[in-house]
């Protein structure tokens, strides 16, 4: 049979040429590999400020396609990597990145190979999740490419420059709450007394507080089973008395009431960890995979999924739930929900894994700042989603993530990102995104 230049070979070559063109346009040097053992090219890093070659190489695995990548939506996609490729890359001394492109559409993205997550129980392929908005291979990627070389971190301190920038935070604006708080005296002294009594009467709502023999809530206690435990008259106070108060105890009560109200508002989809108090997506009834879309575009994110046991094919070893620490804080722009994404692990969708902390630690080591930023945006979009048809009006309404406009920035050529393994600073505080 006569030799042929297959369509797949052509697309692969188009991808290499496309990647080389983009890398060169970014002021870096591209070198093709003559022999491919899982590496298609090399980027020799160039100092953007001095234009001096650094004699540092970043190895590139290029994958091009004119069809959608696995799981591709308008927001992102995932890429599967074999164990052999991972072993080959990690045995070397140079950092490796994966570049995925749609040459015909002039779209190209990149991710460090260290972002790859290992296969779940029974799985064979490693996975890299790509975020189309943050993983583009463009001028914004240059600082991150440079920091793949550890010695780049020893360069002189970043230089502040005059340039307007907008910084987006992990603070989600709380734009609307009920206007009044109901205050009702009771003879009970503790919520641990009131809660069981309410459940006996079939009342399972959690959007109330009991402090100093007084019930606080955003709805009239007389309209529910709470009314049975009211002793005396009910008063109302304007919510601004609590939201604008300078008194620490009052502010803490307001925070607790907001949290209890959010817990009730989202109880159909989210549960709350008893000890660590983070919110996490509930399991589906049949333990099937659950996806959540926050817009009409794309299929959304998988927020609950089971992973097969490697040793016992067909059996699920564990389930992973999307989770987030959600705390309410007062800012100069008003009240906001502070979002700290995390994960929750269970045996069966309900019982927590004893080694959940180890699983969480492993995920945090693999995640990079773009992934954390994408999760913050997901949670912001989820909590701020429009009410569904037939759904009751939510008492707490969220807006957009707070952002800051600054008139001085950092030269991106000398910018030092936060710790790429954890998405945190040395203090552990989630950075501005």
Compute the gyration radius: what is it?
Answer: 26 Å
Q: Indicate the mean pLDDT.
A: 84
Shape: elongated
Distance between the termini: 56 Å
In total, the number of strands is 19
What does this structure look like?
Strands 8, 13, 14, 15, 16, 17, 18 and 19 form an eight-stranded antiparallel sheet that branches. Strands 1-2-3-5-6 form a five-stranded mixed sheet, with helices on one face. 21% of the residues lie in helices and 33% in strands. The protein has two domains: 7-155, Trna Endonuclease, Chain: A, domain 1 (3-Layer(aba) Sandwich); 172-414, no CATH class. The protein is α+β, with helices and mostly antiparallel strands and 433 residues long. It has helices at 7-25, 83-90, 142-146, 191-200, 239-243, 248-265, 356-366, 369-383; strands spanning 29-32, 41-46, 53-64, 76-81, 96-102, 107-112, 126-131, 160-176, 180-185, 208-211, 214-217, 235-238, 270-272, 279-281, 290-292, 301-308, 316-331, 334-346, 397-410. The chain has eight helices and 19 strands. The longest helix has 19 residues, at 7-25.
Task: Describe this structure in a few short sentences.
The chain is an alpha+beta fold and 433 residues long. The chain contains eight helices and 19 strands. Strands 8, 13, 14, 15, 16, 17, 18 and 19 form an eight-stranded antiparallel beta sheet that branches.
């Amino acid at each position: 049979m006569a030799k042929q230049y297959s369509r797949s070979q052509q697309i692969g070559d188009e991808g290499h040429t496309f990647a080389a063109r983009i890398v060169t346009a970014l002021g870096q040097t591209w070198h093709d590999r003559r022999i491919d053992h899982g590496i298609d090219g090399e980027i020799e890093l160039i100092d953007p400020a001095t234009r001096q070659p650094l004699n540092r190489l970043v190895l590139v695995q290029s994958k091009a396609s004119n069809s959608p990548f696995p799981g591709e939506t308008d927001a992102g996609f995932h890429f599967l990597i074999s164990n052999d490729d991972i072993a080959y890359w990690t045995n070397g001394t140079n950092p490796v990145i994966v570049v995925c492109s749609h040459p015909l559409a002039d779209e190209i993205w990149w991710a460090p190979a260290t972002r790859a997550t290992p296969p779940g129980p029974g799985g064979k392929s490693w996975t890299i999740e790509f975020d189309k908005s943050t993983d583009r291979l463009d001028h914004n990627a240059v600082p991150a490419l440079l920091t793949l070389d550890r010695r780049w971190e020893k360069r002189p301190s970043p230089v502040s420059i005059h340039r307007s920038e907008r910084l987006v935070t992990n603070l989600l604006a709380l734009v609307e709450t009920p206007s009044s708080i109901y205050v009702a005296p009771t003879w009970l002294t503790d919520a641990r007394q009131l809660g069981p009594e309410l459940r006996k009467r079939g009342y399972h709502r959690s959007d109330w507080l009991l402090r100093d023999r007084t019930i606080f809530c955003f709805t009239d206690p007389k309209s529910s089973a709470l009314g049975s435990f009211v002793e005396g008259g009910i008063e109302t106070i304007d919510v601004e008395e609590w939201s604008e108060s300078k008194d620490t105890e009052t502010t803490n009560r307001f925070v607790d009431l907001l949290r209890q109200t959010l817990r009730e508002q989202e109880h159909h989809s989210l549960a709350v960890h008893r000890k660590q108090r983070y919110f996490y997506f509930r399991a589906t009834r049949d333990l099937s995979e659950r996806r959540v879309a926050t817009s009409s575009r794309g299929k959304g994110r998988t927020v609950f999924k089971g992973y097969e046991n490697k040793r016992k094919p067909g059996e699920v070893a564990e389930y992973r739930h999307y989770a987030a620490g959600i705390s309410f804080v007062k800012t100069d722009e008003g009240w906001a929900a502070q979002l700290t994404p995390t994960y929750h692990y269970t045996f069966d969708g309900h019982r927590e894994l004893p080694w959940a902390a180890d699983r969480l630690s492993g995920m945090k080591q693999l995640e990079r700042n773009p992934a954390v930023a994408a999760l913050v945006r997901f949670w912001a979009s989820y909590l701020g989603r429009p009410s569904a048809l037939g759904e009751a009006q939510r008492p707490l309404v969220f807006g957009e993530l707070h952002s800051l406009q600054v008139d001085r920035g950092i030269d991106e050529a000398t910018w030092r990102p936060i710790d790429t393994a954890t998405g945190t600073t040395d203090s552990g505080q989630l950075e501005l995104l």
